[in-house]
Automatic annotation (TrEMBL):
NCBIfam families the record matches: pgm_1, PRK01295.1
Molecular function GO terms recorded: phosphoglycerate mutase activity
Catalytic activity: (2R)-2-phosphoglycerate = (2R)-3-phosphoglycerate
HAMAP family (UniProt xref): PGAM_GpmA
PANTHER family: PHOSPHOGLYCERATE MUTASE (PTHR11931)
Keyword annotations from UniProtKB, A to Z: Glycolysis, Isomerase
Site feature (Transition state stabilizer) residues: H163
Biological process, per Gene Ontology: glycolytic process
EC number: 5.4.2.11
Annotated active site: H15 (tele-phosphohistidine intermediate), E93 (proton donor/acceptor)
Top-rank taxon: Eukaryota
Annotated residues for binding of substrate: 14-21, 27-28, 66, 93-96, 104, 120-121, 164-165
Identification of the protein by name: Phosphoglycerate mutase
């Protein structure tokens, strides 16, 4: 389906695999680069968007290089390497506090499997000195509504390259999901999610561009 078929289009992409993803480390606001695999994932996502005729009016990304590079690769693939791209830390990944930089297996050894699982998969329990998903939503959603949504409701086609948890926060709001529902939502790296929204920015439908 062409992006031209709907007036209001919002496309989300989780960044490709980073070097720390590959090493099974908690990353958060740390700033590793994309791995070679991550670059390929971003390129494939861009190719899939190009094959469906997508063009964008504005792009948003976080202050972290793995999301910025994903954004750059995707836009290059769709032939829009010079598109206006707005970068803001409010779209950053969840801040993992004391867990950042730790191997996930080492964290389980230190705090126990159950506690680490609670920190990773609960909605409102934060790791030591870090953010819960609820906290992440409290910075992502006001930014989306004040800065991104006006572009959407003007009929512009908007692209966001960000992170698993910043995008979960946004998806929770778009789809009207509960905290328990959104923590179970898995987002594949480099796979575009196309949201079609009404004139007020309310959810109509979504499509995964995964083939």
């Amino acid at each position: 389906m062409s992006s031209e078929a709907a007036e209001n289009v919002l496309v989300l992409v989780r960044h490709g695999e980073s070097e720390w993803n590959k090493l099974n480390l908690f990353t958060g606001w740390k700033d590793p680069a994309l791995s070679e695999t991550g670059q390929k994932e971003a390129k494939l996502g861009g190719e899939r968007l190009k094959s469906r005729g997508f063009k964008f009016d504005v792009a948003f990304t976080s202050s972290l290089q793995r999301a910025q590079k994903t954004c750059e690769i995707v836009l290059n693939e769709v032939g829009q390497s010079n598109l206006e791209t707005i970068k803001d830390e409010k779209l950053n990944e969840r801040f993992y506090g004391d867990l950042q930089g730790l191997n996930k297996d080492e964290a389980r050894q230190k705090w126990g499997d159950e506690q680490v699982l609670i920190w990773r998969r609960s909605y409102d329990v934060a790791p030591p000195n870090g953010e819960s998903l609820k906290n992440t939503a409290e910075r992502v959603l006001p930014y989306y509504k004040s800065t991104v949504l006006p572009h959407v409701t003007k009929g512009e086609k908007v692209f966001i390259a960000a992170h698993g948890n910043s995008l979960r926060a946004l998806i929770m709001d778009l789809e009207g999901l509960s905290g328990d529902e959104i923590v179970k939502r898995e987002l594949a790296t480099g796979v575009p999610i196309v949201y079609r929204l009404d004139k007020n920015g309310k959810y109509i439908s979504k499509e995964l561009i995964d083939n």
